[in-house]
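Continued from yesterday's entry.
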Amino acid sequence: MLTIHTADLLLTGDPRHPPVPGGAVLVDGRTIAAVGPYEELTEASPTARVRRWPGLLTPGLLNPYGPELLEHAYHPDPREADELGTEPLTGEALAALAPTDARRGASARRGVQRMLAHGTVAVAGDLWRPAVLDAVRRAGLTVEERVADPAGAPSLDPLARDGGRSLREAIVTPLAPVPGAAATFAVFDAPDEAALTTRGASCCTATVIDGRLLYRSR
């Protein structure tokens, strides 16, 4: 099925192409069929389903703290909030908890969902625990190589100011209608790149990986 995702502003992630007001991405199954102004895409594919998003549509983001957030942290279940709180446990608190592999797998699944809520479609760094790798792969996130430890404190926000990363640096792959290009992108409640940088990736409203809508805030 053909689906057109359109937003107030489209950033392809390719510096050679300017932002597209009212831009859109035509998705054919798992891949991108076309990128451009909404009117052009609907004229070429009038029977395509349309999803309209307010804000900014960009390529999906890379979180450089894969091991730190998914293997060296425990994301409490909401039912554990009274005992463990709601923030990830690390260091001595994680050691004291001593979670089993099953609990680590459940934690990783929750961590992945929190990443998706920040427009994350890939993580960097070596992941060794099978339960964590399974959670990442089932969600469709890719694992990228990391040549050096990232700057700043680990954060679920790929645009966190501590890390000093720009949107361009956080983008995994620009949006382009090349053969086999994955339909992977995110939408943020921000009017432009400057506002997104200020608000951070927590203003994500939708994350799509391989054509699947895996996160939607509303």
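--- second protein ---
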Amino acid sequence: MTACFAPVSRIAAAVAVLAALPCLPAHADQFQPSGEVRGYPSGAIVSGALGKSFGDNWYGALHGAWNFVDRGNNGKFDNEKGGGFGIGGTVDKYFEPRQNGWFLGGRAELFFLNIDYRDPGVRGSSDITVFQPTARAGYGWTFGDGHYGLTAALSLGAEINVDTSGADVGEGAIVLGGLAFTFKP
């Protein structure tokens, strides 16, 4: 009976963290709350973050995320679906001040996913921990007298299953496209 409530509690925890991030206090030139949506061929990731500019045009952020997975037959089984909560960090180097213009960066994330799979005659579920390092490039815009930002990025990396409880499920190369909105108090 406890296993039945585990996915619900994970979802509740993820929603609570993502909902709380924009409510945290932020001051000028301090933490910047943001929200991001990224898509990839087998799913989507929605995240909330707190970031900060530092050094010479550098930006760093920590985030909580929810990963929606629908691999279809792109995994090890004919059908793999599921999702789960994750945490991660990002570091970007902008070529202009105030997170404007082109940037290059990197991101590392750890996701705790529950994947339901099926093949003809086979059904099951796996709990996996996925490490997802990516290199990213994109463009940032600042508007509203510098109080808001919009960032578009393309990321290339890997999904690496570091721990699996159940059958092995898909992993490998990943390409993501994303759009983020940032409040810059």
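The chain has one helix and eight strands. The longest helix spans residues 2-20. Will compare against the first tomorrow.
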